[in-house]
Design brief:
It is a single chain. The chain is α+β, with helices and mostly antiparallel strands and about 375 residues long. The chain is built from twelve helices and 15 strands.
Length: about 375
C-alpha cells in the first residue's frame, strides 16, 4: 500500500530544507531521508547527503537503514494483531509462552510479567546501555544490535538471570522487553519473528523492503557515529557512550542468519515503508487493526510513571505519547506519538494536525536525539 503523493511533494519546504542542509553543512549528519505525510498524503520527501560517504554514494529515497528501535512499533503492531485474534492476551503471563523465562526480584520472589508490562516497558527489565558495567553487561545480555550469532533462547536465559529492577507494573524502564515479546510471537506462531512480522504487518500493506534481513545490500546505508570534525564510520564493533552506559554496535549482525531476530532493534528498512506503517495507525489501523485497538495503543497506559524522568510524557503500546507539550518542551499537539532508533532515527505523529514525519539518518546519536530532531519538529510546524 503506497501512500498517495501530493502534487507539491517535490516542492521544497523552506524550513525543513534548511534544517537538513544545516545539519549536513555542519557535518552533524552524513546522510538522511526525510518524509512527511499530512492528511494521509506525502507532502514532503527528500534524500540528502551520503548513504556511504567513503564510496561517494548519495542517499536516495529507497536507501535502506538499520532501524534499531524503529523496529519496536512494527513488532508491537504484530503483537496487537495476535491480541485481536485472541491468540495473545494482554493480561496473560509471559510464562504461558516462555515457561523458563522467570526473572526474580532482589528478594527472590517471582512476580508475573504480563504481556502488557512488556509492551509498555513496565516489566522491570532493562538494557545494557543504562548502566556501564551494570548487571546486564556482566550477564552478557544483548541489546539487540550487537553479538552476531547469539540465539534468542540464550539471550532470554541471560536476561532472566538478572534481578528485576522493580515489581512489574510499578515502574517504567526502557528495556529489552520487546525482544521478549518477539519470543512470545515466535512461540505463538511457530515461525521466526521475521516471517511472522512479514505476514502480520508488511505483506498486508504491500511492503517488501523492510524486515530482519537486508533485501538489497547495494542500497544499505553505511553507519556512522558522532565525531569531530565529522562523524566517524563505524567499525565491525563500535562502543558508543549513551546516558550512563554504552551501546555496543555490531553493524554486520544483520548479515548473520543465526542472529536472533530482535523485536526491539533487529530490522532494516526504508523511510517510505516506516511512514506507510505509521500512517496506517494514523488512519485508524485498517487493514491491520481495529480502531478500538489503535485507540488503546495511542492512549497512555502507564499513568504518571514517566513524569519523574520525562516530564510531559506517557507511554502507550509501541511509542511515547506527548501528554503535555509545554512540559515536554516540544512544538507538537497533546496526544502526539514519537520514538526513535539508536542508529540515528526519529519519527513523530501529530494526530491533531494529521502530520507524520519520519527522519532516518545513518548518524548515531545525532539523528536520534540531537538538535536535528527538535529542529525537524519546529520546521514541520513552520512549513505545514
Amino acid at each position: 500500500m503506497n501512500l498517495p503523493v501530493h502534487s507539491s511533494a517535490r516542492t521544497p519546504c523552506p524550513t525543513i530544507d534548511a534544517v537538513i542542509e544545516n545539519a549536513l553543512a555542519a557535518r552533524r549528519l552524513v546522510g538522511t531521508v526525510v518524509m512527511v505525510a499530512k492528511d494521509g498524503e506525502i507532502v514532503y520527501r527528500r534524500a540528502a547527503g551520503f548513504a556511504d560517504r567513503e564510496a561517494g554514494l548519495p542517499a536516495r529515497e529507497d536507501t535502506i537503514f538499520r532501524l534499531a528501535s524503529v523496529t519496536k512499533p512494527i513488532v508491537t503492531i504484530a503483537a496487537m494483531r495476535l491480541v485481536e485474534q485472541g491468540r495473545i492476551g494482554l493480561d496473560e503471563p509471559v510464562t504461558k509462552w516462555l515457561p523458563d523465562f522467570r526473572p526474580r526480584l532482589e528478594d527472590g520472589s517471582e512476580p508475573d510479567i504480563l504481556i502488557r508490562h512488556l509492551l509498555t516497558h513496565t516489566s522491570g527489565l532493562s538494557y545494557c546501555f543504562h548502566l556501564e558495567d551494570g548487571p546486564y553487561v556482566r550477564a552478557g545480555v544483548s541489546d539487540g544490535v550487537d553479538q552476531p550469532g547469539l540465539s534468542l533462547d540464550e539471550n532470554l536465559r541471560r536476561i532472566a538471570s538478572v534481578p528485576l529492577l522493580f515489581a512489574p507494573g510499578t515502574g517504567w524502564q526502557y528495556s529489552v522487553s520487546m525482544d521478549v515479546v518477539g519470543g512470545v510471537i515466535e512461540k505463538e506462531t511457530g515461525k521466526r519473528l521475521g516471517e511472522a512480522v512479514a505476514e502480520l504487518v508488511m505483506q498486508p500493506l504491500g511492503l517488501s523492503d523492510t524486515g530482519f534481513t537486508v533485501t538489497d545490500r547495494n542500497r544499505l546505508a553505511a553507519p556512522y557515529v558522532d565525531g569531530a570534525p565529522e562523524p566517524k564510520r563505524m567499525s565491525g564493533t563500535e562502543k558508543v557512550r549513551a546516558l550512563d552506559g554504552s551501546v555496543m554496535f555490531a553493524p554486520d549482525r544483520i548479515f548473520d542468519p543465526s542472529s536472533y531476530h530482535s523485536g526491539g532493534g533487529g530490522m532494516a528498512g526504508t523511510a517510505s515503508d516506516v511512514l506507510t506503517v505509521l500512517e496506517t495507525i494514523a488512519r485508524g489501523g485498517a487493514p491491520l487493526l481495529s480502531e478500538n485497538t489503535v485507540e488503546a495503543m495511542t492512549t497512555n497506559q502507564i499513568g504518571d510513571l514517566l513524569e519523574p524522568t520525562r516530564p510531559g510524557f506517557g507511554f502507550g503500546f509501541g511509542w511515547a505519547i506527548v501528554l503535555d507539550p509545554a512540559k515536554a518542551g516540544l512544538p507538537v499537539s497533546p496526544g502526539s506519538l514519537q520514538w526513535g532508533g539508536v542508529y540515528g532515527h526519529h519519527w513523530f505523529m501529530d494526530r491533531a494536525r494529521k502530520v507524520t514525519l519520519v527522519g532516518l539518518t545513518n548518524t548515531t546519536l545525532e539523528g536520534m536525539w540531537g538538535q536535528f530532531t527538535l529542529d525537524l519538529k519546529k520546521a514541520v510546524a513552520a512549513d505545514l
